Amino acid sequence: MATIDGHYVLVEGEEQTFENDVTQQPVEKGIDITDHVQRKARTLPISGFVAGNNAAKTRAYLIKAADQGKVVKYVGRNAFSGVISGLTTGHDSSIANGFSFSLTLIEVRIATSSAVGKLPTPIKSQAAPVISSGTKQTKDTDKGGKGGKGGKKTGGKSKKKKEKVQKVTFKSGDSKWKNYKVGGFY
Predict the structure, then answer these.
(1) Which sequence spans correspond to the domains of the chain?
(2) DSSP 8-state assignment for residue 116
(3) pLDDT one-digit tens code per residue, 116-143
(4) Which of 47, 69, 166, 171 is the most buried (most CB within 10 A)?
């Protein structure tokens, strides 16, 4: 017996694959030159049966996990964590209270958030995205088109509080580059 996130399944076979992308360049004589090898995501095709009183619940869970792209944990002859990329269920007369299935699990790598929020303010200001996007034209609030703002921007100040940025300054003569010659000139 094997489990997929705690749901019992009877697995007939597991075929774990370990593939690489290999780029090759042709040369004038001899075999091609291989200049780069990159590992592909691991895959684990599984086939088996689910039978018993909980077969319908297990089928519903597998479909939901596949639809939502949930990372599932499989424990059988091999242990594997990944998303279900393909799920096929078969219903015939050979299994009265269940179904046969085949699915493929694919290894995933989840990206982590940037560390910009943890940086000190002077450095964070250099890594922060550009907030100003230029002058925008305002909408005309007058329904008749006369006597309205006419697309002109008002001179009102924004009430948004800006974070104070410390600027790094050097005293004159304190530059660490002052003694270096560039192109024969100081």
Answers:
(1) 2-20+35-106
(2) G
(3) 666 666 665 555 565 666 666 777 666 5
(4) 47
